[in-house]
C-alpha cells in the first residue's frame, strides 16, 4: 500500500489518495482485463508533482487539500524531463 499526494506547479495539494495493493494479474486474465480492473487514482485538477508515502501515512500527518508544501519547486522543475 502507498499513499500519494498530488501537487500543482506551485506545490499546492490538489488531491490525496490511499492506494491499496491490488491482486496480481491472474493466470487466466489477459493484460487488458488486468489493466481494466485496476483502480485509477487521479487528480481532479492539473498536477505537476506527486509525493509517495508509506501506506497509512496520510492518517498520521496533517496535510489537507489546498495546503502548500514547501518544496524547491524551481529545482524540481529544472530537473524534470
Could you give a quick summary of the protein structure above?
The chain has 2 helices and 3 strands. The protein has 81 residues and is of the alpha+beta class. Strands 2-1-3 form a 3-stranded antiparallel beta sheet, with no helix packed on it.
Comma- or semicolon-separated keywords:
single chain, 81 residues, alpha+beta, three-stranded antiparallel sheet, 2 helices, 17% helix, globular
Would you kindly provide a written description of the structure presented here, covering whatever features stand out?
- With 81 residues, the protein is of the alpha+beta class.
- 17% of the residues lie in helices and 23% in strands.
- It has helices at residues 31-37, 73-79, and strands at 2-7, 13-19, 49-54.
- The chain has a three-stranded antiparallel sheet with strand order 2-1-3, with no helix packed on it.
- A hairpin with a 5-residue loop joins β1 and β2.
- The relative contact order is 0.34.
State the oligomer. single chain
- Spatially, the strands of the biggest sheet line up as 2-1-3
Look at the structure and give the mean pLDDT. 92
- Structural class assignment: alpha+beta
Distance between the termini: 27 Å
Which ranges are low-confidence, i.e. pLDDT below 50, for 5 or more consecutive residues?
Answer: none
Q: What's the number of extended β-strand segments?
A: 3
**Nearest-angstrom radius of gyration?**
15 Å
General shape: globular
| Beta strand % | 15-25%
By DSSP (H or I, 4+ residues per run), the number of helices equals 2
Bin the helical content: 10-25%
Largest sheet geometry: 3 strands, antiparallel
Q: List the secondary-structure elements in sequence, H or E.
A: EEHEH
Amino acid at each position: 500500500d502507498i499513499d500519494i499526494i498530488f501537487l500543482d506547479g506551485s506545490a499546492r495539494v490538489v488531491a490525496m489518495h490511499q492506494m491499496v495493493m491490488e491482486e496480481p494479474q491472474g493466470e487466466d486474465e489477459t493484460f487488458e482485463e488486468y489493466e481494466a480492473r485496476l483502480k485509477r487514482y487521479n487528480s481532479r485538477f492539473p498536477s505537476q508533482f506527486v509525493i509517495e508515502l508509506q501506506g497509512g501515512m496520510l492518517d498520521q500527518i496533517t496535510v489537507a487539500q489546498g495546503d502548500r508544501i514547501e518544496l524547491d519547486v524551481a529545482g524540481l522543475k529544472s530537473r524534470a524531463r
